[in-house]
Inverse folding.
């Protein structure tokens, strides 16, 4: 490549100071990387600060070709109402059932059993999300 540069007319295409260019690129990379980390940090903080409801499927049982029962445990603030969305998938990973469950009451931890009606035999019970009812 330097042989080609040597044959080009002097000053026609210019030459960048490679040390100066390297410093600028490193500075730009550092600034962009720092901005990305800041954005991810703010997003994570916002998610944790605003999401006061969490849950998990403790166990599930396939009842029949048209129903799956799930034992759901929800953690929330006292007196808060939460809405949790559960789904069941078939053996081919297609969704065969979905249900929104409202969880209310003074307790901060609520255990409940939910039956998800399915269009085909379900093989799973999965919690998609739990949110405060006013965020739903």
């Amino acid at each position: 490549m330097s042989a080609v540069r040597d044959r080009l007319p002097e000053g026609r295409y210019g030459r960048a100071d490679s040390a100066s260019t390297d410093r600028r690129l490193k500075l730009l990379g550092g600034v962009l990387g720092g901005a990305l980390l800041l954005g991810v940090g703010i997003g994570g903080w916002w998610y944790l600060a605003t999401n006061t409801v969490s849950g998990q499927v403790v166990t599930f049982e396939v009842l029949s070709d048209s129903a799956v029962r799930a034992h759901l445990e929800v953690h929330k603030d006292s007196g808060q109402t939460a809405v949790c969305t559960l789904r069941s998938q078939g053996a081919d990973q297609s969704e065969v059932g979905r249900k929104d469950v409202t969880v209310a009451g003074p307790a901060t931890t609520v255990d409940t059993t939910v039956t998800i009606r399915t269009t085909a035999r379900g093989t799973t019970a999965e919690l998609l999300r739990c949110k405060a009812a006013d965020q739903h």
In short: Residues 72 and 112 are 5 Å apart (CA to CA). Residues 54-135 form a domain with the Immunoglobulin-like fold (CATH 2.60.40.3230). DSSP finds two helices and six strands in the chain.
